[in-house]
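Notes from hallway chat w/ T.B., transcribed later so I don't forget. T.B. wanted the structure written out for a chain they're using in a teaching module, and asked if we could keep both sequence and structure tokens in one place. Agreed to drop them here.
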Amino acid sequence: MATKHEVIREELGRYLAASKRQKGEILDRLEKTLYMHRKAIIRRFRVLQTRKEGVDWTDRRGRSVYYGKDATEVLREIWEISHECCAERLAEIRAEYVSKLKRDGMWKHSDEATGKLLAMSIGTIKSRLSSFDRVVSGGGRCMTKPSSLKEIIPVRRGPWENPPPGFLEADTVAHCGNDASGEFAYTDICLTWCFLKAQMTKDKRPTLESVNAMFSRSPFEWTLIDPDSGSEFVNWHLYDWCLRKRVSMTRIRPGMKNDHGHIEQKNDKNVRKFAGYVRIDDEKRLATWKKLLDRLEVYVNHFLPSMKCVEKFRLNISHFSRRYDKPMTPYRRFMEHPAIPLAAKEKMSAFHETLNPKILHDDILKLCTSPFSSDTNLALRIVRRGGF
């Protein structure tokens, strides 16, 4: 059966030689045959009439696609390994990811596709990322309760003014699922250089043990810890520990999550994105979750870049504009900060050279699916994308 283009081409000669009445009859017949508007048929006749013979007139509308399917697949792999970074952060870290994967023989893409990946502008990366599927989790429960000992510990007010390493915010993330009764796991999380530690309850002593474990493996000295006003932090155990370690302690205003804007964001990106809102209430799941956090802490600190707001100014009564610095990983900020001793930088650099983002990503994915496979919501969330 002839196509519409072929039928119109056959009728072109008769249409050009016909009278006005005959042209109307030809258009009426083609309208019924091709199910096209007569104005569209006339435009087709005009285009065919003006084209030169012997020239291949394929459809050339628009600019040809430069970043094809191969470049998109390369970008998708790097994007998934980077924990679904935004375009600005992904553009800064892509070269290091490619270098690490090539070093370990895990890069399977052609030189042409690799070159296109490294040449992509931020605008192109944004356009491609907008078509990728993202996972959005539901909300959870608030587990913060009123506490005492609030007159001794001062309240911190105002934003951080780019403090040196050692000024940390601290918070807990509950893994209770839909039921807040009984015992279930919590994750302690500290800001700046991200520290993660799992514990079964929100009691004072397990929280103190978690803080002490994070303090012992910190690559820099702690100067101040700034938790929320929950009883797991605001207690005599942690306060006495801070006095012994010569670490200052402040707290935020009760119920004011905006005072903890940095750590609240990390709760979502560094914990909820991986565990979702499943319930962890047995030792087997907790042990697996601890293994996952050990790898996740390294992955976040060494391979997930972040941006810091360096300037904020008011445009009008209700709108602000912000300017951010160049995206950098916590590892890169650690290496470039003048307050960090040279010996600590050399030790951290040697450890960084042994890491591979894809291996860490795959280990996290494996651990993320194994202990929570019985949870329907998380299983569907992981299977739908093939990853966390």
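Follow-up for T.B.: Strands lie at 167-175, 185-190, 195-199, 224-227, 248-249, 309-314, 320-324. Might be a good example for the class.
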